[in-house]
Amino acid sequence: MAGVKSSDPQVLRGEYLARVGDCSACHTAPGGKPFAGGLGIASPIGAIYTTNITPDKETGIGNYTLEDFDNAVRHGVAKAGHVLYPAMPYTSFAYVKTDDVKALYAYFMQGVAPVKQANRDPDVAWPMSMRWPLSIWRKLFAPAPVADNTPAPTGDKVSIGRYLVTGLGHCGACHTPRGVALQEKATTNEDGTAFLSGAVLDGWLARNLRGDKADGLGSWSEQDIVDLLKTGRNSHNASFGSMTDVVQHSTQYMTDDDLQAMAAYLKTLSPLRADAPTLAYNDAAAKAMFDGTTKDPGALLFVNNCAACHRTSGKGYEGVFPSLALNPSVNSPDPSSVIHIILQGAQMPGTQTAPTRFAMPGFADRLTNNEVAQLATFVRQSWGNQASAVNADQVGKMRGQVHALAAPAR
Fold this sequence. Notes:
Blueprint: H1 9-20, H2 23-27, E1 40-41, E2 46-49, H3 66-75, H4 90-93, H5 98-110, E3 123-124, H6 132-141, H7 157-166, H8 172-175, E4 199-201, E5 204-206, H9 222-231, H10 242-249, H11 256-266, H12 284-291, H13 297-305, H14 307-310, H15 336-344, E6 346-347, E7 359-360, H16 369-380, H17 392-406
Antiparallel strand pairs: 1-2, 2-3, 4-5, 6-7
Helix pairs in contact: 1-5, 3-5, 7-11, 9-11, 13-16, 15-17, 16-17
């Protein structure tokens, strides 16, 4: 991160924690100065723009005391007294311990360069722009910040991983489904199996991170999880959507010990659907394509558009083009990501340990809604995959979302 060099151990600890919390991803606009804010975040009530969290005294947080900083980060209350929109994941940061808040404060005050950039008001129309309802929302759904400041014992990987995943990592902010009031249905595993069970965000499915073998992490080893977080790819899958930014800006910089701890904790989560069948590879589709006997229109579309990279076996090329066979994202009950990636394409992040950014082109201009549905259905029901079919209406809705998300901000 660009900033002010410091040898203070607390500042350096705060810099690392800011990486873990991926603060730059939200508080840095494309082409903007680090942490100066201005990134537009789409919400059901309108666009919300992230704030300047550099130590500038006029437009940033330079006049924040430690208490002010803690109130914003863990309580969701700004120095001015208004409640923050929950686009700021204070419901997760409530689980961050006070010593780590102090380290973050030290970093943002001493290790970040001040930038004078005024904050932008949300594009939220009245009456939804009124802040007082957020106070009620906060009382109903935000957990009380933790009081226990005792660090997890050294070597207790699961406890350390739980702390990182639940707190600063704020994995639940994307991977946990939300209720009618847009609240996370669970902020910890103790709240129920909705925690980290998957949710749609910006047209992408933030996938199930629980122990389900078909669409979760049940068939992955701890090392598989570490590999994805460190490099953006593993032998089963590759990161896409907003997870690409997480790997790019956050998890690739985490220590191996912390990544191993996160993986160890995630592997303790019970499956959401314990009675779901275990998937096994089936080569029938591959043989039919190889022999030229298939009449499935989705298979023909796959041969013409996808097989060069993902192979007729559906197994792809490890570390380069992800396997589609038995892929958890492909087998999710929600086909959002499969449809989205066919329409828009995707690119792997370039990381320190895997710098090549392999990319898949989008086919929105090449395939009709019906053809995308046929292709997606074929992929979700071949090589042992057992997911539901996709229809043209679902593709049409996703095409509209992709178009809207690609529109330039005003």
